[in-house]
Design goal:
By secondary structure, the protein is α/β, with parallel strands linked by helices. The chain has 14 helices and 13 strands.
Amino acid sequence: MKIALLYLDALRSGGYPRDVRWLGSALARQGHEVSLVARTGREDDGLEGVEIIPPRGFPSHCRNIDLVHSWGLFVPAQVALETLARKRRPVAPAVVSPLAQLMPLHLGRSLWKKVPYLTLLRPTLRGSGPVVHFFSEEEYWSSLHYLQPKAHFEATLGLYPVTATAHSDVTRDYVLFLGRNDISQKGLDVLVEGHRHALRRGNEMLLVVAGHSEKGSAAYWRKVASDPELSPFIELVGEVSEERRGSLLAGARCLVFPSRWDGPPRPVREAIAVGTPVIVTNGTNMGKLVESQGAGCLVALDPSSIADGLLQAADPDTLSRWREGATQLRDRLTWDRVASDYIDGYKLTLAI
């Protein structure tokens, strides 16, 4: 199969660019002819066996591919490039990945800007009749409403190697949140209240919060630090190196990641890569996988449900089962196995 991955930022830093690069390489390892349409950039880790096509070469390149997979909706230059290519000549069938951007709580940010944009985009999407790729728990009604695809399929993202020293430098038993301290998106406000509920129910584990400050989170954490009930049981470590990141993950009882919306988050996948169980919400788009493999637990985005998950993590037998499940999920999320899921979706696209 000849596959073009269209993501203009794929050679730049960031989570999704790296995911697209590693997926392209995994597809190439399975014998497919893969090209990546991207602007110039310095990042190429994981990129092997994939031909790089500059944006200006995409319209003519379309004559030689079976399928184009476009990543993201809110990149006007990328949408314009594909629209131009379709106007010039017939183009291969299309797959579109919304990247969790159509989840209702994501749309709620800058709704006044996103909805008119999607309204203008809808005729173009309807004209190309794409198949839509979803992560496991994206809100189907919202995506179907805006994209109106011929069909859709689910596929997740794979794991990366994680560097860790032998031991974490946190001396107490702890659960971990790791990632950008975006209080709203990452659900940190609900996590803190869930931790409070768990403390009141007798759980005295430490909550370690790692990651860089963002969008006013410093003021929020100052308020938490002044709370006498919480402050002895929450430790902020700020932004950490890759090595310490891995050590914190490996040393934690579990990672707690209560996102309101996310693509499969890097910290959740890193935790699974080192065999650490996870407590997640549906907003992470990994809840189904975690539940199916027993790699932790899926909780609702409310303090009581998060407290229930934290109390389960405190039970040695439960934690042991979760760790076995995390190992099983790690085996499921190799890039080669993930790439096979995408190939199934691509075959569905070509069969329509």
